[in-house]
Design a protein that fits this description.
Elements lengths: L1 E5 L8 H14 L4 E5 L5 H7 L9 E4 L13 E5 L6 H8 L4 E6 L3 H21 L4 E9 L4 H11 L5 E6 L2 H9 L8 H18 L7
Helix pairs in contact: 3-4
């Protein structure tokens, strides 16, 4: 089983959006997938509750209620981490996973928080779980904005790989409201969104991105 943690102590940076859409990608391809919601708001669990029965199933777990028991054939497990999680707790979670995704939005506040978090966590991870890989994703971006250029320069200067970008698209809002992911929507509508996910998924699956 390959496990993925989506984490950033800054709220509103799109952790649940990335976690739920990644879960649907694996589900669409027929992989037994689990989604663990570690956030007290339980947004990922709310999303699963409105998920159409016609879509492939995703196992949902309230990670605040104790031990998690996925099905024996589970192939992918995704953890949606809450905001305001301290570094020690995150380091403990990272010990349990294979991949860590850190979403960052194009704002000065988000970039400062991300820089501090990454500086704090990288040394802990390298000491406690050397096999875990970490990467940053530019989230809710607009490529024609100056903030996007500033964000890319910032991410490329970090001590972890810059994996890819996800644009600011209303398709993610619709997906969140209806319990689906963009991989389950009409291809003609979301083709550009899906294209952005290719390098991210390739990296998560082991095709590493060089800085």
């Amino acid at each position: 089983m390959r496990s993925i943690l989506v984490v950033n102590p800054k709220g509103g940076c799109g952790k649940t959006t990335i976690a739920t859409n990644l879960a649907t990608y694996y589900s669409v391809w027929g992989m037994s997938t689990g989604l663990v919601d570690l956030d007290p708001q339980q947004s990922a669990m709310d999303w699963l509750r409105v998920r159409p029965k016609s879509e492939n199933p995703i196992q949902g777990f309230n990670g605040l209620k104790g031990k998690i028991y996925p099905k024996p054939d589970t192939e992918r497990m995704i953890y949606d981490c809450p905001a305001r999680t301290n570094t020690a707790k995150v380091a403990s979670l990272i010990k349990q996973v294979d991949v860590v995704i850190i979403p960052v939005m194009p704002s000065a506040i988000d970039m400062r928080v991300a820089a501090k978090f990454i500086a704090d966590i990288v040394s802990r991870v390298r000491k406690s779980n050397q096999h875990a890989v970490m990467g940053v994703v530019a989230n809710r971006t607009q490529k024609n904005y100056q903030s996007y250029t500033a964000l890319l320069s910032f991410l490329k200067a970090l001590d972890v790989p810059f994996v890819g970008t996800i644009r600011n698209s209303q398709h993610y809002v619709k997906a969140a409201d209806t319990g689906v992911g963009i991989f389950e929507m009409e291809l003609a509508d979301v083709k550009a969104d899906m294209k952005e996910w290719e390098p991210i998924i390739n990296w998560v699956e082991g095709k590493r991105v060089l800085k």
